[in-house]
Amino acid sequence: MPELPEVETVCRQLDPELTGRQIDGLEVLDPRWCRPMPPATLETAVAGATIEGLGRRGKYLLLTLDGARTLVMHLRMTGNLVLIEGERKLDPSEGRRLYEAERSTSERHLRARFILGDGRQLWFTDPRRFGEAFLIDDAELDGRFAKLGIEPFSDAFTPEALGQIAANRTVPLKSFLLDQSGVAGVGNIYADEALFRAQLHPLSPAGSMKSAHLEALRDGVIAALEAGIDGGGASIDDYRDGRGEKGTMQNEFLVHTRAGEPCPRCDGTIVRIVVSGRSTYYCPSCQVRLRRRPRKRRPVRRSP
Ligand SMILES: [Zn+2]
């Protein structure tokens, strides 16, 4: 499932390609993609629009259009947003031959495609069909994302802010990181990687972190996400970047999917457990399991 680094990779690749381009047409092949808006309504609204940029909020892709509107897209489980060069000669050095081989498969999973003014096409493919899109006025964006948590790469992501979100929470740290209303953009892969970097056990209660733990977790989240972006995202299953190529982060995982392998930091062995229904990988030897803080005792009143 694409997380912040995968979505960010797509953004960084496609933003310079798309900015300033006109959308000659949009073809929605799967009504589920943009429901409840009827495909024809969205197609008409978007046709002729000029793209002002492609951005990201959490795991959402934001295609900014002229007229102060944004087409918001979410890749969910298996969605991909890929720029297709059309009939133009493809550059093999960019690995496009790989994509050509997969192209017939992608066509079967095509949910929507944008026809761009320069002859290229932007495809939204999605085998599982959980991906979605909706058109929104820019004035409504903040309200729409009001419940989305802190952006990890923003100045607001401080140990203190993390502490405020975690205060009095008894949920395991793994579940805490997966909750998009706390920290936005972290999913199953990068939660494991961040907790390993922070040397924190995934089952530690979120509210049990002290200031040193909060700082370690903040740094761990940022470092794990940066590693993911450096690796061009992780392609365990269906993820492909904006050019249709696999990321390499799956080769760089410290603990995720590494059950039975030696810990990269100590003599321990990585194990797999299930937390909140999600596979979770950690090292039992060097990731500290914090205990719930004991409740403050009420002073006992003594009768005179
Ligand atoms: Zn270890």
Tell me the layout of helices and strands.
Elements: H1 4-18, E1 23-28, H2 39-46, E2 51-57, E3 60-65, E4 69-74, E5 80-84, H3 96-108, E6 110-116, E7 121-125, E8 132-137, H4 141-144, H5 159-166, H6 173-178, H7 188-198, H8 211-230, E9 271-275, E10 278-282
Antiparallel strand pairs: 1-6, 2-3, 3-4, 4-8, 5-7, 6-7, 9-10
Total number of beta strands: 10
Strand content: 15-25%
Helix share of residues? Answer: 25-40%
| Rg from Cα | 22 Å
CATH secondary-structure class of the largest domain: Alpha Beta
What is the CATH topology classification name of the largest domain? Answer: N-terminal domain of MutM-like DNA repair proteins
The CATH homologous superfamily of the largest domain is termed MutM-like, N-terminal
In the CATH classification, which architecture of the largest domain applies? Alpha-Beta Barrel
End-to-end CA span: 64 Å
**Strand order, sheet with most strands:** 1-6-7-5
Query: Quick check: average pLDDT?
Result: 92
Give the H and E element order: HEHEEEEHEEEHHHHHEE
Number of domains: 2
The computed structural class is alpha+beta
Bound molecules: zinc ion
For the sheet with most strands, the description reads: 4 strands, antiparallel
User: What best-fitting shape do the alpha-carbon axes yield?
Assistant: globular
- Please give the count of helices: 8
Question: What ranges have pLDDT less than 50 throughout 5 or more consecutive residues?
Answer: 94-98
